[in-house]
Amino acid sequence: MFCTDIPAPIFLIISKATPPLLYYFHIPTAVIALFIGFFVLYKNRTLASKILLSIAVVFFIWIFLNLIVWTNIDSKLIMFSWSFFGILNVLLFFLSFYFVYVFINKKDISFRYKFFASLLLLPVILLTPKNLVGFDLVNCEAQENVAYFNYVFGLELVVSLGILFFSIFN
After folding, report:
1. Which of 9, 20, 36, 96 is the Cys-Cys partner for 71 at CB 3.0 to 4.6 Å?
2. C-alpha to C-alpha distance for 75 and 168, rounded to whole angstroms
3. Phi and psi angles of residue 133, each rounded to the nearest 5 degrees, phi first
4. Quick one: average pLDDT of 20-35?
């Protein structure tokens, strides 16, 4: 199935129907994030700099897949790209918490907390193949499983609150 209201993109992400502002916000931020991640790692090879680079790489992948979703007409490619958003979103939040913890405490998180975080991530990873239930050809977008969507955003909310409270009290 193809969305027929826009022309096919060139080089997977460049479409004449896409507003230029979308590119101005996506591409420079993704490139700058990668540059900063590699630059910080080059200057200082600490655990915090490695986590920062991991955040930048996940963010870059998220931006690239987001551009694919916004510019493509092939429903298979849109669904494939969209299916990774849950994992990438949750990874960004968990890596951000990990970064804040390591940056503030100057030490790694214990294995017990890493194991607990892995258990929280496990449903997101295991249910990723089931997170999309259909495709809306009229709006040219994927339809997500509500339970998966709620779990991902609930997890993101909990991690965000964890970052906030950890930052305030430490």
Report:
1. 9
2. 44
3. -110, -10
4. 90
Q: What is the CB neighbour count within 10 angstroms for residue 5? A: 11
β-strand partners of 132: 144
What is the identity of the amino acid at 139?
Answer: N
**For the residues 40-55, what does the mean pLDDT come to?**
96
What is the structure's pLDDT at 130? 82
Residue (of 124, 37, 29, 32) closest to 67 by Cα position: 29
- 158: number of Cβ within 10 Å: 13
Report yes or no on whether pTM surpasses 0.85: yes
pLDDT at 108 > cutoff 60:
yes
Distance CA 109, CA 54 (A): 16
Question: Residue 55 carries which side chain, given as an amino acid letter?
Answer: I
H or E segment and range at residue 96: helix 85-105
**What is the torsional sign of CA 58, 63, 69, 74?**
negative
b/e string for 112-138 if b means 16 or more Cβ within 10 A?
A: eeeeebeeeeebbeebbeebbeebeee
E strands, 19-151, are 132-136, 141-144
**Stretch (H or E) spanning 84:** none
| Amino acid present at 161 | L
